[in-house]
Write a structure and sequence with these properties.
- The chain is an alpha+beta fold and 243 residues long.
- 26% of the residues lie in helices and 13% in strands.
- It has 5 helices and 8 strands, in the order H-E-E-E-H-E-H-H-E-E-E-E-H.
- The chain has a 4-stranded antiparallel beta sheet with strand order 5-6-7-8. Strands 1-4 form a two-stranded antiparallel ribbon. The protein has a two-stranded antiparallel ribbon with strand order 2-3.
- Strand 6 and strand 7 form a beta hairpin.
- It is elongated and about 135 Å long.
- The N and C termini lie far apart (100 Å).
Length: 243
């Protein structure tokens, strides 16, 4: 669909969407700054920090297909287009004095309901499925040498987004086209079928180059014809003189 902005605005919006949906880390790798890890207190939190006491998980735990050991460490984007909800009905002090009449008219409007998204450090196992498949796929980097392999997760919602982890090393990387997965993506019209080769006949077929012997034979034949024509011309001149 058309984007209401410039290319730089579109790029910034896509980066925000990809980061909000694919930045993940192992459980307990990050924590809330005050150290309170109670799930009931996670609501309303918007920041988390690295946990210096993090105990690395094993590769088997990181590639668990249940995806219970990875969490989001970036807030999701709300339908409003922000990570933190802003009440559009609340205006600044300067606007309050200018729009007193408008406020009186809006008193009868329904109260705007606050938008809420998943809390910070929410497990990725709760992410919505993608066309019936899990939002993430976890696997090892190699099954041939498992003792040297690392764990990595691939996002099925944003193709090109990966997260990997081994010991205390955890990173997120994105190498993609900036497009979210969709089973109904636009496909261009295929080109028309290739046309048949042009019909070949004597007029369109290339003649092979003659050999040296053929060229000499042709020259000799042309020379003989010239000499014969010259003799015939002399005989005609002689007959005219006799007459």
């Amino acid at each position: 669909p058309p984007f209401p902005g410039t290319e730089i605005n579109y790029l910034r919006a896509q980066i925000a969407r990809i980061s909000a949906g694919t930045h993940i880390c192992p459980i307990d790798y990050r924590k809330f700054e005050d150290g309170d890890e109670d799930d009931s207190m996670a609501e309303g939190r918007d920041e988390c920090v690295l946990n210096p006491e993090y105990e690395p998980l094993s590769i088997e735990e990181l590639v668990d297909p249940e995806l219970r050991n990875w969490v989001h460490h970036v807030l999701h984007i709300l339908p409003q287009g922000r990570c933190k909800w802003v009440n559009p009905a609340v205006k600044g002090e300067a606007e309050d004095f200018e729009d007193e009449e408008e406020e009186e008219e809006e008193e009868g409007l329904d109260e705007i309901q606050e938008e809420e998204g998943p809390p910070l450090l929410n497990p990725i196992s709760q992410d919505a499925n993608v066309d019936g498949f899990p939002a993430w796929s976890a696997c090892r980097s190699s099954d041939l040498v498992p003792q040297y392999s690392i764990a990595f997760l691939r996002s099925n919602a944003w193709p090109g987004a990966y997260a990997y982890g081994i010991d205390k090393k955890v990173e997120n990387v994105y190498i993609g086209w900036g497009q979210k997965y969709s089973s109904e993506n636009y496909s261009p019209v295929p080109p028309p079928p290739v046309m048949q080769e042009y019909f070949a006949d004597l007029e369109t077929t290339e003649i092979p180059d003659p050999t040296v012997e053929e060229e000499k034979a042709l020259e000799a034949m042309q020379q003989e014809q010239l000499e014969r024509e010259a003799e015939e011309a002399e005989m005609e001149d002689d007959e005219d003189d006799e007459d």
